Amino acid sequence: MATRLFKPHKLRHIPDAQWEAMTDDERQTLSLSVQGGFTPKVTVTTTNGQTKVEVPATDPKTQPLTNIRDWTESVDGISGERLRNCINFQLDVRKKDFWVRNMSVAHVRRFAKSLDEETPPGWTPPEENPLILEKTKGDDKIITITRELQSEEERVLIRNRFGITAYTILFLKKKDCPKCKGAGNYKMSSYPGQGRLEKLTETVTCECVFE
Ligand SMILES: [Zn+2]
């Protein structure tokens, strides 16, 4: 026999009779979703003694929270995103016992304010696949572009921040460019149409680098 689910406190807005009228699946879906910190809007309609329960289609935001690190709920005016960053900061960087030991939905809700105050303003977790790495060696700052550029925004970022240099051209050149064949530069005559001088060439940066 299936275990009977009690109506969670968070679902107190649903009348008992309607709770009783739900199928086990519906009760379970609802109970799971409130555990994740959400109060779903359920519509219950009774027509000719037939009760129909509509649980909203699950979108990713109303999925039950399975990992506290994926926190999305805002509490006391602190955004879900900020709280998520605070949780990850305390778990991975600060590792303060009070937080690490007790990190739970109830704890985060109860101490949201302290969690916010004990995390550096604006802290975000390090990117998993950062585009730029900066290292300081003595007085020098060494910049490494770690991977291929993946978007228009990244191309603009690299050009604006570092300019067009021999190093950035390696990343900005387009592999399928018909003009430079992916080299990022091509040779052209310094004196086009000027007889013997025409064969003197110079290397120019290809247009694709600027695209
Ligand atoms: Zn090109």
Explain what the structure shows.
- Helices cover 33% and strands 15% of the residues.
- The protein contains 8 helices and 6 strands; from the N terminus they run H-H-E-E-H-H-H-H-E-E-H-H-E-E.
- Strands 1-2 form a two-stranded antiparallel ribbon.
- Strand 3 (132-137) and strand 4 (140-145) form a beta hairpin.
- The longest helix is centred in the middle third of the chain and has 15 residues, at 80-94.
- The chain is elongated.
- The termini are far apart.
- The model has no long low-confidence stretch (mean pLDDT 84).
- It binds zinc ion (ZN).
- Zinc ion binds next to loops.
List keywords for this structure.
alpha+beta; binds zinc ion; 6 strands; two-stranded antiparallel sheet; elongated; 3 domains; 15% strand; 211 residues
Bound molecules: zinc ion
Give the N-to-C terminal Cα separation: 66 Å
* Main sheet properties: 2 strands, antiparallel
Number of individual domains: 3
Number of strands: 6
- Percent helix: 25-40%
Order of helices and strands: HHEEHHHHEEHHEE
Q: How big is the Rg? A: 29 Å
What's the arrangement of strands in the largest beta sheet? 1-2
List unreliable stretches of 5+ residues. none
Q: What integer is the average pLDDT? A: 84
Gross geometry: elongated
What is the multimeric organization of the chains shown?
A: single chain
Strand residue content: 15-25%
Class based on secondary structure composition and strand pairing: alpha+beta
Individual helix count: 8
